[in-house]
Write a structure and sequence with these properties.
The complex is a heterodimer of chains A (102) and B (145).
Chain A lengths: L1 E7 L2 E10 L1 H17 L5 E12 L1 H16 L3 E5 L3 H10 L9
Parallel strand pairs in A: 2-3, 3-4
Antiparallel strand pairs in A: 1-2
Helix pairs in contact in A: 1-2
Chain B lengths: L1 E8 L4 H13 L6 H22 L6 E9 L2 E8 L7 H5 L15 H8 L2 E7 L3 E9 L2 H7 L1
Antiparallel strand pairs in B: 1-2, 2-3, 3-5, 4-5
Helix pairs in contact in B: 1-2, 2-4
Classes of the chains: A alpha/beta (102), B alpha+beta (145).
């Protein structure tokens, strides 16, 4: 699992790639939280999932955790480009009501 | 009919191996990409449960047994861990025993939704066995109208 990011105006774009599961999520939490802390003044974070080739409910838990952290900073969270498999569990879990797909 | 059985330690690095092995075993049944993704996700959920809940991060054996019958793939994922006190409660969407660990509580709901058949048998202190079936023939029947 790799993560890189880009700032553009009020947006923090976070690009995830790899397989998002119990094994990969540990280090990713720390890295994503540090990135959010460093960009706490921005309006929103957009997670780009185009590179995520697999995701299970551990990935949903990861996204929920980041949502809560962003919310505490007053930042919105959005999701971009999930593949069909990720889209299916994101829709089933109802997380799009909290972090809309853009 | 074909069968296979995998037994591996409850380490999260084995999840990718388990779900990809089951997906590879299912290939002769000619699944669609979306069906294969459903199976991989369901296996990943079941194995995660063994690691996170069954053994609570400790080490133990996980067994994944698969069997094909016609257009159906049967999968059994079992551990010899703590077991589930109240299965009915555990099956409820968003229910989790580990809310502080960012658990979504969606694992069983995903298995039930993605697979054709699903059941779970568990006894506190003895372990848990999840039995699932995916029928790859459903698509053909729908197409046939």
């Amino acid at each position: 699992m790799t993560m890189h990011f880009r700032r553009k105006g009020e947006n923090l774009y976070i690009y995830l790639s790899g397989e998002l599961d119990e094994n990969s999520v540990g280090g990713l939490r720390t890295d994503a939280d540090r990135l959010i802390d460093e960009n706490a003044g921005l309006s929103r974070a957009v997670f780009n999932l185009a590179g995520v080739k697999f995701m299970d409910s551990t990935g949903i838990g990861f996204l929920m955790g980041r949502y809560k952290k962003l919310k505490a900073y007053g930042m919105g969270m959005y999701l971009e480009n999930p593949d069909a498999g990720a889209d299916k569990i994101l829709a089933l879990s109802g997380v799009y009501t909290l972090m809309p797909k853009v | 009919m074909n069968e296979m059985c995998l037994k591996f330690l409850s380490r999260s690095e084995n999840e990718i191996f388990a779900r990809n092995a089951v997906a590879a075993f299912a290939l002769p049944l000619n699944p669609s990409l979306s069906e294969l993704s459903d199976v991989k996700t369901a296996v990943s959920e079941a194995v995660t449960n063994c690691i996170v809940h069954g053994y609570r991060g400790g080490e133990g054996w996980i067994t994944v047994a698969c069997r094909t019958e016609g257009s159906k793939l049967y999968i059994e994922v079992s551990d010899e861990g703590r077991g589930i006190e109240n299965v009915e409660e555990a099956l409820a969407p968003f229910y989790t025993t580990l809310p502080d660990e960012e658990r979504s509580g969606m694992g069983f709901t995903i298995m039930q939704t993605f697979m054709t058949e699903f059941s779970v048998a568990s006894k506190a202190g003895e372990g848990t066995k999840v039995t699932m079936c995916k029928d790859f023939g459903e698509r053909a029947e729908i197409n046939a109208g």
